[in-house]
Amino acid sequence: MRTYNWAILGLGNIAHKFAESLALLPNARLHAVASRDAVKAQEFAARFGVPHAVGSYDELLTVPDIDAVYIATPHTEHYAHTLLCLRAGLPVLCEKPFAVNAQQAQQMRQIAEAKGIFLMEAFWTRFFPAIHKALELVAAGTIGEIKHLAADFGFVAPYVPEGRLFNPALAGGSLLDIGVYPLFISKLFLGEPQEIRAIATRAGTGVDVNCTMALAYEGGATASLFSTLAAQTDNQCILYGSHGQLHLTGRFHAASGITLKLPNQEPQHIPCEKQGYGYQYEAEHVQQCLAQGLTQSPLLPLQFTQELMHQLDAVRKQIGLRYPME
């Protein structure tokens, strides 16, 4: 079994989780890390036993034998850092949201396709065993035809105007940080909506604190989605079908199982594997794609990501949120 050499570009909190998750894959190795702070890179490398640590993102391109780069920088940096790696011929797994807007996403996609290099959004939710199982049950008609999907994601974030979550210069707000999860899960199960309506409340910096979205689909289904930085929500997703309900158990974006509620039956709990944080599932999928010579994921193609970015743009237009770099 071939071992794949990973690099991480950007060493914030999520990079630590990815590094820990990568250690769960027997055929993956963290080969290089890059930060704008050389000391931070060296400390990260020492903690995880990484042979190469560099103090600039450009320098990462000089490290030999990199098979894939995981980009873990803030939202506003994804576009530039993805292009940096793609132009150097390096396959990329880019953290979500994929970009600030659909225009950036389109350019990232065009470069990857023109150069024939693998690119995928790091939407880890898609690769959890519970999600695979839920899609299988829905496809089998277990809950009948989906009529409505409800999903929420919220936590209490201290109001720090210059911080990542509330700073418009860093593409802050609940929508791009966590509202993207309910949008993603609705798209995964219901496809492209015919209509999107959204309302939001703002922080003092102008970004959204609460964002509520209502979606309607051609087949007659609807979705109600919510994200907030002001309250702890249940972080749940429920699919209401014509013959029953399907609940993703645990936090839906990192689900640990499924609960089926069918008429005249006791609820049926189906546990699903969830090891550690769960980032290894997406990393494993990237490795499988690379082994097959693929330049896109069949489970999370760039068209899906592009359409999701268009949905985010549509919501922001409705709530009147435009970032200064746009």
TrEMBL record:
Top-level division of the source organism's lineage: Bacteria
Q: Which SUPFAM superfamilies match?
A: Glyceraldehyde-3-phosphate dehydrogenase-like, C-terminal domain, NAD(P)-binding Rossmann-fold domains
UniProt keyword annotations, A-Z? Oxidoreductase
Q: Which GO terms describe its molecular function?
A: nucleotide binding; oxidoreductase activity
Domain named GFO/IDH/MocA-like oxidoreductase is located at 132-246
Residues that span the membrane, as ranges: none
Oxidoreductase in keyword set = yes
User: Which residue intervals define the domain Gfo/Idh/MocA-like oxidoreductase N-terminal in the entry?
Assistant: 5-121
Q: What does the similarity note say?
A: Belongs to the Gfo/Idh/MocA family.
Put simply, this protein is called Gfo/Idh/MocA family oxidoreductase
Identify the species of origin: Hymenobacter wooponensis
